[in-house]
Amino acid sequence: MTRAVEHEYDVVVLGAGPVGENVVDRARAAGLSVAVVESELVGGECSYWACMPSKALLRPAIARSDARKVPGLRQLVQGPLDAAAVLAHRDYYVSDWKDDGAVGWLDSTGAHLYRGHGRLSGPRRVAVESSEGERHLLTARHAVAVCTGTRAALPELPGLTGARPWTSREATSAHRVPDRLVVVGGGVVAAEMATAWQALGSHVTVLVRGQGLLPRMEPFVGEHIADALTERGADVRTGASVTAVVRDGGTGPVTVVLEGGDHVEGDEVLFATGRTPRTEDIGLETVGLEPGSWLPVDDSLRVTGSDWLYAVGDVNHRALMTHQGKYQARIAGAAIAARAAGDSGLETDRWGAHAATADHAAVPQVVFTDPEAASVGLSFAEAERAGHRARAVDLDLSAVAGAGLYADGYRGHARMVVDLDRETVLGVTLVGPGIGELLHSATIAVAGEVPIDRLWHAVPAYPTLSEAWLRLLEAYRDGTGTS
């Protein structure tokens, strides 16, 4: 075996997805030398198999649905989507799964890219082996940042491996529309991919083990989305536990067997049943950590018990969303730079420059279904479990003047959760067409802990959907629509 070539850098980053890229950006801006190790495509899961391709598939579906609710347009958009054009549009947004552009950006920062599998080989050391057998040993003077993300978690079920199921990767990169698609799961991936592939022409069956879609959001969200999927012809089944999958030879139709003996047939089956950290083969055991584990961190994203190892993004299990990972990366990069400069005055207090406080209190999320769903902060149930004396204020969004202009027969719902002791907003949840663009105002209210009496002076433009804020505040003042 060839001897490893040794190199030294200030910072070594494992993983060149959006999170790793942001750590690089902040570290290089501080003048630190950086090495980046990537075993797949520079740009990561979000760019090629998650955020970007899924939204490219969903946007035409949502735009057509919105147009069908507008007089003068609905008669022009009654036909099916051009599936080939939609898939080609998706391919454009993922650069045909080529990372030249992302590599060009990374090169422009002055960071050094190592392609290959990276593994920790002791404190501050990363061994890299390329597919061509080249070996490098990287030493970090100050920090190693693990930004390897997550992968789809598949349950242990009879016949599943041989059935060649779709995971989120296959669901966002497939080049053929299956006549029948069975979706197992009730979370974000399941709801979004059911929406996308139904719009592209698949007959979709959704099998949810629990009692509804999107169980981590307010209950009304999943109800709205399930109703919409059902109205468009999908079969949404709750309380449906899968016990086995049958597919002869891994090709042809697939049969999904349910508890109780019932079964569902499809041409493809998507398992959207959670995520697991990509830490199983990165050498954690060489630094006293358990392979395959989530990595606990402090608010500066430094791994518990270490003074050099950082875990940023999905791998720390704080908030499994790209925008939160990028937020963490900015915090981690700044903290690494400050410590490298010998700065003992890190701002790690609440809302300090080196503390990822928003991961505790103000995590925003948009689910790009039809209708869209969005939330930030705590649900009412979460607020109560956390010990807050809270009130939930509900609003039928059809009461907002801008809703009727946005779409005939607009259907949607909003909930604002208020801390009664401090009179600040703990959380906001919305479901309805176009509401994703309302979320940032809610995020500011939650993250900024803006008092209710001050929110009265943030006047929403008329007639827009943002007038929902005024109606929620009125309902809170009048004691109506509350739980």
Automatic annotation (TrEMBL):
Keyword Ligase: no
Gene3D superfamilies given in the database record: 3.30.390.30, FAD/NAD(P)-binding domain
Stretches assigned to the FAD/NAD(P)-binding domain: 9-324
Swiss-Prot/TrEMBL cofactor(s): FAD
Domain Pyridine nucleotide-disulphide oxidoreductase dimerisation: 363-469
EC numbers for this chain: 1.-.-.-
Keyword NAD among record annotations: yes
One Gene Ontology MF term: oxidoreductase activity
Transmembrane portions of the chain: none
Superkingdom, taxonomy of origin: Bacteria
Keyword vocabulary terms for this entry: FAD, Flavoprotein, NAD, Oxidoreductase
Entry's family note: Belongs to the class-I pyridine nucleotide-disulfide oxidoreductase family.
Record-given protein name: Dihydrolipoyl dehydrogenase family protein
The organism's taxonomic lineage, starting at the top: Bacteria, Bacillati, Actinomycetota, Actinomycetes, Kitasatosporales
